[in-house]
Amino acid sequence: MFKKVLVANRGEIAVRVLRACRELGLRTVAVYSEVDRNALHVRYADEAYCIGPASARESYLRIDRVIDVAIRAKAEAIHPGYGFLAENDDFARACVEAGIVFIGPPPAAMQAMGDKIQARRTVSKQGVPVVPGTYDPLRDDEMIAAATQVGFPLFVKASAGGGGKGMRRVEKIEELANAITRARSEAESAFGDGTVYLERIVKPARHIEFQILADARGNVIHLGERECSIQRRHQKMVEESPSIALDEKLREQMGKAAVAAARSAGYVNAGTIEFLLDKDRNFYFLEMNTRLQVEHPVTELVTGIDIVKEQLRIASGRPLSHQQKDVQQRGWSIECRITAEDAYNGFLPSTGKIISLHEPTGPGVRLESALFEGFEVSLYYDPLIAKLCVWGQDRATAIMRMKRALGEYKILGVSTSIPFHQKLFQSTSFIGGTIDTSFLDERFSMEQGGSDERERVAAIIAALLTHDRRQHALNIPPPTSSTRGGWKRFGNWEGLVR
Question: What pTM, to 2 d.p., does this model score?
Fold first, then answer.
């Protein structure tokens, strides 16, 4: 295996990859923007190099600067993490041309599966069911003509990129022309490619994805499924593995289809095949993510397989360390994406300095984070700041463990999505597993009890602070171990005001 790896990313995913490298005895190189000079991934790596100002376009997205650092640091391989350059085939190609190992799929496979139109054509030839829609780049008038065959409601979707950008929902033919124009414009701005296609809306539907590992020797396996139906405006918020919707027969069918889809593109390294599952248990290929996923920890927790280490093994030319018969899902895992957003105010981004931090621990808890007291959360990057994961022997245990962990997690200085997750885990629909991709947008609200609860908590804190000041003014000593009983009425608030 190579001896030095550059991690072309930041935040919690950079720290995650750096830790895997350290466990394998590899030396590491970090890159950072000027605003990330004191970031945890910079402190953790063996070497670190500044690659530009705060703007990602002038730092983390600069292929030339990342490659230049790798050459100067004599790094033999680059791990892109996810986001930024992770699915950029030009970057993968630049690594190859510079004699550097790209820890990901070959550029050709990345290009084939990164283009959603081409991916739909490729996998359908292997008999993998695909969501009904168009299969070729079409002019606006051609798409309008094809829409009646696709059926309404439908999505106009960007062929490049993802994350809901370049996507427009269309209910009737009269709305289509404007939706195509707007989707093309947004796709061109976000991805530099205005190509769009039509895709019928499958509703209600669950979002089920399968983790794939493939080596350069033709071995391809899947590591089971992840349930990703808890989404807000097409952005995943909670993931779990396995899915309550699948039985062994359906799991085997979807797993085989996922492997076939990966093989169809000559795929190598880690990737994810995403499916939609309708109410009649029919599944359809949606797309392939040609990188490590944000939610990969839930798969690691139920399979015991370290996906990042497997990526490193594969990239060094070694075969997979597991065969399909070795893969077993044990227990249940759930991940909550913790973002710096105000859940009570339309999830507006929140910025500021972390002034106090208490992280959850204990049995079955895994936290992936790059936060520390004094860390500055800025507007320049994605609001994802941590991933809170739990494992339990069954789903009920995992849910209760997550509720406990969320209650322990205290981040002061910025607003976070923790209150949203706490409210979600009180939902009878979520607990019962009766969810689909439209659940958050159509059947869930932060308003009910949200602001009232915040006001109640604020009133309690204010009352306790006033009581505390009066004690000091009267020279009354704070409660001791023998007089602490009265404070028990206030639960954890004593620690908060002291």
Answer: 0.87
**CB-based contact 202:284 (threshold 8 Å):** yes
Residues 478 and 432 in one domain: no
**Contact between 241 and 332 (Cβ < 8 Å):** yes
Lateral strand order in the sheet of 365-369? 283-289, 269-278, 205-214, 220-232, 235-241, 332-339, 384-392, 365-369
Distance of CA 105 to the CA centre of its chain: 19
Give Cβ neighbours of residue 348 (< 8 Å, ≥ 6 apart): 341, 342
Q: 3-class DSSP state for residue 220?
A: strand
Reading the block at residue 71, the tokens are 């050459």
Check which CATH number belongs to the domain holding 312 and give it: 3.30.470.20
Look up the domain containing 214 and give its range. Answer: 205-443
Q: Answer yes or no: do 179 and 264 share one domain.
A: no
CATH number at residue 72: 3.40.50.20
Q: What is the pLDDT of residues 450-486, one digit of tens each?
A: 334 444 455 455 555 555 555 554 454 444 444 333 3
Q: Quick check: is 83 in a domain?
A: yes
44: burial class by Cβ within 10 Å (0-12, 13-18, 19+)?
middle
Which amino acids are annotated catalytic?
Answer: 291
* Length of the chain in terms of residues written: 498
Same-domain status, 421 and 471? no
66 and 89 in a single domain? The answer is yes
Give helix 248-264 / helix 116-124 axis angle, nearest 10°: 110
Structure confidence by residue, pLDDT tens digits, 308-336: 999 999 999 999 999 999 999 999 999 99
